Amino acid sequence: MAGPGNSGGILSPGMLEGLNREQKAAVEHFGSPLLLLAGAGSGKTKVLTHKIGYLITEKGFRPHRILAITFTKKAAREMAGRVEMMLNVAPRSISTFHSFCVRVLREDIGALDRTFDRKFIIYDQSDSKNRLKDIVKRFNLDVREADEAQKTISKAKQAYRGDVVQHIASLPFPHDRYAEVAQAYERDLERSNALDYDDLLHYTTHLFASRPAVLEKWQSRYDFLMVDEFQDTNDIQYFLVKLISDRNRNNVFVVGDPFQTIYTWRGAVPENILKFGRDFNAEEMRLEKNYRSTRKILDVANIVIGKADRMWADKILTLHTDREEEGEVEYRSAPDHDAENRRMAEKIVELSSVCSYSDIAVLIRLSFLSRGLESTFMRYGIPYEIVRGLAFYERAEVKDLLCYLRLMANTRDGAAFTRVINTPSRGIGKKGLAAITENFRTDWMQALGDTRLSRKQRTGADRLMEMVSRHADAVEEKPYTVLMSVIRELDYLVYLEDEYGDDHEDRRENVSELCNVLLAVEREGRPFSEFMEDSLLASDQDRISGEESVKIMTIHAAKGLEWPVVFLPALEEGIFPSERSVMNRAALEEERRLFYVACTRAKERLYLSSADYRMKFGRTSRMLQSRYVGEIRRCYSRK
Ligand SMILES: Nc1ncnc2c1ncn2[C@@H]1O[C@H](COP(=O)(O)OP(=O)(O)OP(=O)(O)O)[C@@H](O)[C@H]1O
Ligand SMILES: [Mg+2]
Predict the structure, then answer these.
(1) Which of 204, 276, 568, 607 pairs with 130 at a CA distance of 20 to 30 A?
(2) Which residues contact 637 (CB under 8 A, 6 or more apart)?
(3) Contact (CB, 8 A) for 596 and 301
(4) What is the largest CA-CA distance in the chain?
(5) 94 half-sphere exposure, CB direction, 13 A CA radius
(6) Strand 252-256 to strand 94-96: parallel, antiparallel, or no bridges (unpaired)?
(7) Over the chain, what is the mean pLDDT?
(8) Residues 565 and 360: beta-carbon distance below 8 Å
(9) Which residues line ion ligand 2, judged by CB < 5 Å?
(10) What is residue 7's predicted lDDT score, i.e. its pLDDT?
(11) In this predicted structure, what is the pLDDT of residue 628?
(12) 349 CA to middle of ligand 2, Å?
């Protein structure tokens, strides 16, 4: 099959230059669907990028008619940059699933025959959670059910089984109970001309599946479809890929690595890769060689992934390299987390004479670990940047709790008051808050006391006032003691679980870390207000950022990326693998894949570490070394 329109573009050997035989074969493959399965760092993304260039220069495809889908916006930007460098044209059709869907809906949402229009707004998770909370209350359900309802609705949208409400009604108990809630929620969204995240995919798929004219229009805009990180697609994304490519089945190229599936907790279906092979009758190619990492790093990766579930036995892709350098893998255990962070900082300072700070990344399993790193790096003058995800003191759970303490220390603190008044919920909405604000004379407790409220709101308000006044005297000198008490009184950990479901474990650890910090403040005899001032300033000014900085990020966010030097700290049971996963086989398998993803980010040096003791909620806990460290014992030197 020939490419569309003008062929025989500028002959550019550049597109194949520097690629190995298998990579070239994948770039040149044309005329039938292709599945490229290969391990980490073998050049999958590179092949995809070169293939875009090849199709343009050799096959005469027009840049904007090649749709390439990547997992994150960052990956999309990087890929567009690489193609632009090769060709001097900026490809406009590299996007994520979500941004592609937004593009479709901005143009064609009218065809849905609903009242949505193109100016729709997009609700994030917490917007839709708040709407659902109001709705479950209207149905006289416990507000905590909002979380379950949200999950049920989200799953129903992702499953794409026709009408969402009807689908939920047909589910087994207890999910069917949410059909009415879902209906009210859908109406509410439509009234606000709003879509939630799942709607973006759901409505686009629905449009394509039910409006042939719309589908044809979008199909005819693209001559080629490519998808990177295919192992992390979910059902609806898979279906969408099928719909878009239906007219041009032969011009589809997907790449993936089943062993890097790390998003099943968000609905990714690794079997989609096998399904793609069958459904599309795709040719399958492999890449054998790893170009990213040195030998020792690959040994670690191979050992860990060698123990993975055999479900993928015939797909196991052992990584090997032709590189001469052995590289370095080192493991250190430290007496406690402070010592661990200090050693890491010392090592980074040492390395900074031979490489740039931006060659270094610290990958963490849970985001709470960034707090200790931040303060240590600051002390050592190491420039760092927390990538994707907020700095510790900006995290919702940390802010919530600190705002309680701030309000106790100063009842005029308006920002603190507005934050805590409904967190956790006391049923005081915007109107209630407006009335309280109106009554403000001397301070917020006075305003709260002077405002007329419903009985239920009054009970909540009185409890808050009582709690604030009871701790007011102690907070300055005993912030840790007060914090522990506030967490208990608010049942804050249960609230986190209800509110955040999926990542509450991570948030819980942040709360624990805040306890540890305040314990130190209390022990040192530093006043709480002074500590607050320092930590606010620290997050604004002391942080040195810019390109030349060590990157700190979660492993999930590091997917697809690489650095010459990678640190993997806190390799302890209960952290990596995480506490929740230890009890669940499937989750434990995913942790193993996550570890594989983590070590394969490193090109030359991999530094592993763990602490014997770590503070949890202000108490010292004995930690056990992670099972992965034991498994790879023969690969590392011990310092
Ligand atoms: N033929 C090659 N010659 C030299 N370097 C290569 C070659 N192929 C790939 N590389 C380099 O190897 C590294 C890994 O490539 P790439 O990111 O494309 O791998 P990947 O398979 O997509 O990895 P991941 O599974 O982590 O997404 C990159 O630095 C890339 O430039
Ligand atoms: Mg890649």
Answers:
(1) 204
(2) 328, 329, 330, 331
(3) yes
(4) 80
(5) 25
(6) unpaired
(7) 88
(8) yes
(9) 44-45, 560
(10) 39
(11) 96
(12) 30
Q: What percent of the chain has pLDDT over 70?
A: 93
Nearest to 498 by CA among 71, 95, 148: 148
Q: Residue 38: which H helix or E strand, with range?
A: strand 34-38
Residue 523 confidence (pLDDT): 92
598 lines ligand 1 (CB under 6 A): no
Q: Which residues are catalytic?
A: 44-45, 228-229, 260, 601
pLDDT at 6: 39
Backbone angles phi, psi at 549, to 5 degrees: -145, 155
Lookup result for tokens 């200090």: 342
| Angle between helix 235-244 and helix 97-108 axes, rounded to 10 deg | 60
59 vs 416, higher pLDDT: 59
Single pTM value for the model: 0.78
What was the pLDDT predicted at 268? 84
Which of 331, 306, 262, 388 is closest to 571 using CA atoms?
Answer: 331
Q: pLDDT at residue 2 above 70?
A: no
Report how far residue 260's alpha carbon sits from residue 257's, in angstroms, rounded to the nearest whole number.
Answer: 6
Q: Which two tokens stand for residue 426?
A: 């006391």
CA of residue 41 to ligand 2 center, whole Å? 7
Residue, of 512 and 318, whose pLDDT is higher: 512
323 lines ligand 1 (CB under 6 A): no
Cβ–ligand 1 contact at 292 (below 6 Å): yes
Comparing CA positions, the residue from 23, 78, 47, 71 lying closest to residue 227 is: 71
Q: Are 537 and 371 in contact (CB under 8 A)?
A: no
**Cβ of 43 below 6 Å from ligand 1:** yes
User: Tokens 């193993």 identify what position?
Assistant: 592
DSSP 80-148: HHHHHHHHS---S-EEEHHHHHHHHHHHHGGGG-SS--TT-EEE-HHHHHHHHHHHHHHTT--TTHHHH
Nearest to 421 by CA among 398, 444, 442: 444
Higher pLDDT residue, 309 or 535?
309
> pLDDT tens-digit profile of 36-94?
999 999 999 999 999 999 999 999 999 999 999 988 777 888 888 888 888 888 777 89
The best mutation among 74, 254, 292 to test binding of ligand 1, ranked by most ligand atoms within 8 Å of the C-beta, falls on 292
- Look at residue 224 and tell me whether its pLDDT is greater than 60: yes
Find the ligand nearest to 290 CA.
Answer: 1
Query: Mapping DSSP to helix (H, G, I), strand (E, B) and coil, where does residue 426 land?
Result: coil
Residues 510, 398 contacting (CB under 8 angstroms): yes
319 CB within 6 A, ligand 1: no
CB 379 within 8 A of CB 525: no
Distance CA 125, CA 150 (A): 9
AA letter at 473: D
Kindly report the length of the chain: 639
Read off the tokens for 97.
Answer: 């699933």
Q: Ligand 2: distance of its center to the CA of 572 in Å?
A: 28
Pairwise CA distance, residues 168 & 205, whole Å: 18
